[in-house]
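Incident log entry.

Two folding requests arrived from the same account within the same minute. Monitoring flagged them as a possible duplicate submission, but the sequences differ. Recording both here for audit purposes.

Request one:
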Amino acid sequence: MIRITARIALDERDIEESFILASGPGGQNVNKVATAVQLRYPIDRAGLPEEMRARLEALAGQRLTKDGVLVITGREHRSQERNRAEALDRLVELFRRAAVAPKKRRPTRATLGSKIRRLDAKSKRSAVKRMRGSPGED
């Protein structure tokens, strides 16, 4: 079991991994060896609370299929083991980010001092621009 929070854990047996050919430079190694890993995890099996599931779906974006399967691909490294570890870390990190509820925004008001400073700056700027104009008739 992979621990996400005190109450939520992912079962490692639900993670399907398949190895695919990596793209990009790497010479013959890239053409012969399937080093990139693709992790697939159905988020229904995680037993997430509804609000956490909604945050996870928003964070996952296009990595979430219509069937509710989260797909993470790791292809940064030249070995299967390092790619597997990186993809698993990214999967866990995604779940941990979804577990943290965003803080509620409390609207604040501008202080009296900041209002006065803003109006003073505006009047000074206005005076500078007024002085640039042509002199009026006497």
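Request two (distinct sequence, not a duplicate):
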Amino acid sequence: MRTKVVGVTFSNEDGSSRTRIIAGMTESDKVCIERDPFNQYDANAVKVCVLKNGEKKQIGFLAKDIAAEISPKLRKNVTFNVSIAGVGIWNDRPFCEIDIMEVASAPKEEVKPVTSGPSFTPSKPSGPTFNPTRPSGPAFTPSKPASPTFTPNRPSTPSSTPTSSTARATVSGASQPKTTPVTSSPRPSSPTTPQNTNNSGCLGIMVGIVVVISALLVL
């Protein structure tokens, strides 16, 4: 669609003149359209801007009837290609005509539900498991040093071995010889005579007398 930009004689909010901007434009310049939701006169207002030296400058608006058609699409992020059909000064008045073409969006591919078939999980052949065993060596248990034990010596008691009155000896396969008891006659005990006791007493007295006499003679 081709349409004429309106409001080209007004100034922008930053004070720049739209007439001077259009006077310096060429048909090769890039232009774009965008919504102006804060416009107090039209809720569907769409402004037209030109890109010059890396800056975006507004040159006017779309007509109200065309803006009512395009603004809802811009709200839905529909893309438009905008190009300049004519620009310049005519009878001392700036003018600019643009071509607006909606970019057709690619049709959405129908997503078909994928039916899940039976899942197959290949099982790995289980090989022999190898568990290395460590050779069991002799267990070493440190032995504690044995503390010396003290056992008091008990006095040995003489063991009394009962002797049998009659010793019997048995020899296998031989007859025991008969023993004839020998009877010994008791010896007559010699009587102790009291004379020996009297003689020893008299002898002691005599020795004592001799010692006394010898002492006297010495004196």
